[in-house]
Amino acid sequence: MDPMNPVVLITGGGRGIGAAVARLAAAQGWDVAVNAVHGLRSAQAVADEVRAMGRRALAVQADVSDEAAVRAMFARVDTELGRLHGLVNNAGVVDVAQRVDEMSLARWQRMFAIHVQGTFLCTREALLRMSFRHAGAGGAIVNLSSAAARLGSPGQYVDYAAAKAAIDTFTLGVAREVANEGVRVNAVRPGIIDTDIHASGGQPDRVQRMAPQVPMQRAGTADEVAQAVVWLLSERASYVTGSLMDVTGGR
């Protein structure tokens, strides 16, 4: 089955930036698979919005750090939506603000499992479907990194920043590895964005506190990040690969 519309899988697509990407991609002609690990109700709600736009949609539950679950998720997309054209590695978490000498091994392992291992696993499955090397027809992968990868997030989220720095390096390496195989790989690095991820890390007021540090004097929106992601997925970015695009208001 090869649908008329291109198909994109968005991990962590039930809220925030992932949900904004799903809506914008649908508006621009994509059929969308929306992944969530726990909040499948929110993923289903986003899928319903996509269907209301006249596109096909699938809500699929999977822990991106679990190899078997990732393989099963991609198999469902294959069966229910058809050939994969795009992947957005968006699933991510933050933890409470801490110094490194206060952090536990369990925290570090969770942070790297979701951000790094999850991105590796999903990218591998996408390449097995997209790459000319594997008889694919090409595609695009966009990884969600963070400005934290170059700022370090001292006293707050050094573990998160380090995981995102790994995503940057992974993006550069994979992009060059598959550049002649029809697959483009890029990353978007958001800055202070007004989503509920800050509340999940115990700092619901973080956006308001940090906004004065941004040269544009405001936080960004999930929709503004989605514009960059969907552009990188599209053929309008056909000569763009191995790029790390900051969406940070100048920070």
Radius of gyration: 17 Å
Which superfamily, in CATH terms, is the homologous superfamily? Answer: NAD(P)-binding Rossmann-like Domain
Helix content: 40-55%
Low-confidence stretches: none
The CATH topology label is: Rossmann fold
DSSP summary, beta strand count: 7
Please list the strands of the largest sheet in the order they lie side by side: 3-2-1-4-5-6-7
Calculate the terminal CA-CA distance, rounded to whole Å. Answer: 44 Å
Instruction: Please tell me the total number of domains.
Output: 1
Strand percentage lies at: 5-15%
User: What is the highest CATH level, the class?
Assistant: Alpha Beta
Q: Helix and strand string, N-terminal first?
A: EHEHEHEHEHHEHHHE
In the CATH classification, which architecture applies? 3-Layer(aba) Sandwich
Helix run count: 9
Shape: globular
Taking all residues together, what is the mean pLDDT?
94
Structural class: alpha/beta
Main sheet attributes: strand count, strand direction, barrel closure: 7 strands, parallel
Give an account of the 3D structure.
- With 251 residues, the chain is of the alpha/beta class.
- Strand 4 (86-89), helix 4 and strand 5 form a beta-alpha-beta unit.
- It has one domain (7-247): Rossmann fold (3-Layer(aba) Sandwich), CATH 3.40.50.720.
- Helices cover 44% and strands 15% of the residues.
- It has helices spanning 16-27, 40-52, 67-80, 105-130, 148-151, 158-177, 197-200, 206-210, 222-233, and strands spanning 7-10, 31-36, 57-61, 86-89, 139-144, 183-190, 244-247.
- The chain contains nine helices and seven strands, in the order βαβαβαβαβααβαααβ.
- The model has no long low-confidence stretch (mean pLDDT 94).
- 46% of the residues are buried.
- The radius of gyration is 17 Å and the shape is globular.
- It has a seven-stranded parallel sheet with strand order 3-2-1-4-5-6-7, sandwiched between helices.
